[in-house]
Design goal:
The protein is mainly β and 652 residues long.
Length: 652
Amino acid sequence: MQFLALLFAPVRRGSCRCAALALTLLLVPNGLAAQANGQLQIHFINVGQGDAALIISPLGETLLIDSGPQTAANCASATGIITYLAGIGLTKLDYHVASHYDADHIGCTDHVAARWPIQRVAYDRGGANVPTTIQYGEYAAAVASRRQTVSVGQNIVLDSSSSVPVVFQVVAVNANGFPVSNENDRAVVLVLRFGTFDAEFGGDVSSTMERRIAPAVGRVEVHKVHHHGSATSSSAEFLAATRPKVAVLSVGSPNAFNHPTQTALSNLHSIGTFMYWTTAGDGAAPQPGMDLVANGAVVVSVFPATGTFSVNAAGTSTPYNTWEGPPCAYAAGVPFTTAPARGTAGAANVTTTAGCVWTASSSQPSWLIISPHSGVGSGSLTITVAPNLSPVTRTAVMSIAQNSFTVIQRGRTREPADFDGDGTTDVAIYRPSNGVWYILQSSTNFTAAVSYTWGFSTDIPVPGDYDGDGKTDVAIYRPSNGTWYILQSSTNFTSAVWYAWGFSTDIPVPGDFDGDGKSDVAIYRPSNGAWYILQSSTNFTAAVSYTWGLSTDVPVVADYDGDSKADVAVYRPSSGIWYILQSSTNFTAAVTYAWGGGTAIPVPGDFDGDGKIDVAFYLPSNGIWYVLQSSTSTQVTYQWGTTGDNPILNAP
């Protein structure tokens, strides 16, 4: 291999490398030429509940750590180790290392060695305290002619003639002399060192051995998760010392051990380690944004010249900097930090120097979606916020190139007259002459209708979601007896409740004043300017009241401050002023807007889509809508109407 190493040695600028390349193509089999790509490759092979990792050096030397799984029938199956190694074009195997003698780590060694005879050395922990299993016997026979026992401090070197060799440092074998009674802690532990890149392979060692070897391992970029994510490995102490950027979990699905455990995952996630799984396992579930299930091999490629590496899994490639990689400074700009309930999207920009790797993640990837998740050098990414169908404001944190941004998305304001609960307003009328509600349902694309007989000619319709099921209830307020009659959508409009709440001269003003996702029963009493609110959060058993308004004021209930609660608000026609008692201050502070006057008709609504209701009025004399936008405090107008028209009010 020394001759081949010379062929791949760097060529000085100005010299010709044509002859060297021609000789390489003649002397190296095509499969091996494909393997030797100038990068260090680590193939974590999906062998089910077992371990196998093939390392290919930049110059094409190969070393296989373990050859699971334990059953011979799986070795050459469609997803077995033989099939995988043949599929990537492996033509020879220089070294083999058995971490320990459990069957799920050596069960296919004899099959591998039969297909690719070990050219140099088969390293293991030796012949002391060996098991009496069939698999061990087959392993020992397969490697007998090449077998050597490793020792602590020994280095196994690939590409020895290269200026950047691949070195496997032995940091543990046979528990480093400590008394142990289990095979797992006797494992050979290797640390791969290649330029600024380090990776650790520790078989199935427990937390006891992890604590002993942590100082020798030091900080690493990649960690092969010990013992398939069991609760007895991946200790917090070991991980605090090694701080892997990436961990690879080799685990079977299904398996009989409930691997991986939540203990192991929590310890790894707590230090920010991103995990790649060969399968979904049969234990704790992967965490979005912290775990990626490959359902196949996980391949690490290392680029020594740039101090970077990438991980390829499940059709994606993610770049990373090594701990000692190039010093990089990052700046990031995002298009928004607040989002409307309907959702939005925009481009974020990353500024850094060439070769610097950045990553991006979201704490709530189900609705705050970032793509791509990584890049090299300056670039851009798309941030998408999905619609928020809940009335509750939600918050997420996105990390972009080492910069953190908090995104707040407003809760969805209930669509008025959404009787079928599809998130869209239905076309509905109440006919006083017969007390019937006729509802053309949006869920049928307005092709089918339902009707309910509910009310008298003198009743006032007060639709709202009083039972909190996300659908509008059929409801009326009867001034003659001050009673609310509510036909509940949660019972498919078959059962009703009623509340005696109001006098004949009161004005019904339903709204979600307490922010529990249900409409409250509420009235405004012009005679004393008081609001009386029977709160749904108390199951309509307790009330609050606010004195806010004059006898000639018009109540304009809406969520002006965007806290998903209705504000107590009135419009005063005599002065054209809006008086809003804000729910976000627990109804202790108010704002006012001079916006209207004369014959203006108040028409509050979320015209700019920021999740807050805008102050607006319609002027019948000229058919113009005047909107004071809450998002910008600027004024816009719309010419839509003519004399005698009546504006349709859509604010909840």
